[in-house]
Write a structure and sequence with these properties.
The protein folds into two domains: 139 residues, Adenine-n6-DNA-methyltransferase TaqI, Chain A, domain 2 (Alpha-Beta Complex), CATH 3.90.220; 43 residues. Strand 5 and strand 6 form a beta hairpin. By secondary structure, the chain is an alpha+beta fold.
Length: 184
């Protein structure tokens, strides 16, 4: 199903930062993982009456619209609120209840989907996608229980990768200690 039939696609906004800001202005560098904002993030823009219409809601999906490293997606979980997305993002709002935001993020972040978006992007100096390109993206919509299973399996795979990396670091340290003891 086309993404435009599953959600409203909005653009992020361009705002000047202010040291006495009271609204979080989310940028790509503020996301540590697909669903985790930097805990040290501070509000950087000043609120004004019309800004409220751009506030992010829990479950909104932010998709990078420019960049050389793909068009990654992130779920906004209201860790920092109120917040708005910077103009580097396209924002999926009012997502249809038959699709989970986390599933959308998983699907958009798949290598095959990223390759499709990259091949559809415009610009050579800085590849970019727009609302039209994103709205045409075909998204499969399996049953909710299947989406939950896919998300759970994906999280388990991420955990496995972290553990393998930690084991590798520990093995390297153990080897270093063992070899140093032999030469001293």
């Amino acid at each position: 199903m086309k993404l435009s039939l599953l959600s409203h696609i909005a653009s992020g906004i361009n705002q000047k930062r202010h040291p006495q800001g009271n609204v979080y202005y989310l940028q790509a560098r503020d996301f540590i993982k697909n669903d985790l904002l930097d805990s040290n993030l501070k509000p950087t823009i000043v609120d004004y009456p019309k800004l409220e219409s751009h506030y992010l809601q829990k479950g909104d999906v932010l998709i990078l619209s420019k960049g050389h490293h793909g068009f990654n997606a992130f779920v906004y979980n209201e860790e920092k609120s109120p917040a708005v997305a910077s103009s580097i993002f396209l924002v999926l709002k009012h997502i249809d209840t038959k699709i989970l935001p986390e599933f959308l993020v998983w699907y958009v972040n798949l290598e095959s989907t990223q390759q499709h978006l990259i091949s559809s992007s415009r610009g050579s100096a800085l590849p970019a996608i727009n609302k039209k390109i994103l709205s045409e993206l075909e998204i499969p919509v399996p049953e909710l229980h299947m989406q939950k299973d896919i998300i759970a399996l994906s999280k388990l795979k991420e955990e496995e990768s972290k553990l393998i990396e930690q084991i590798d670091v520990l093995k390297s340290k153990a080897l270093e200690i063992n070899l140093k003891e032999r030469i001293q």
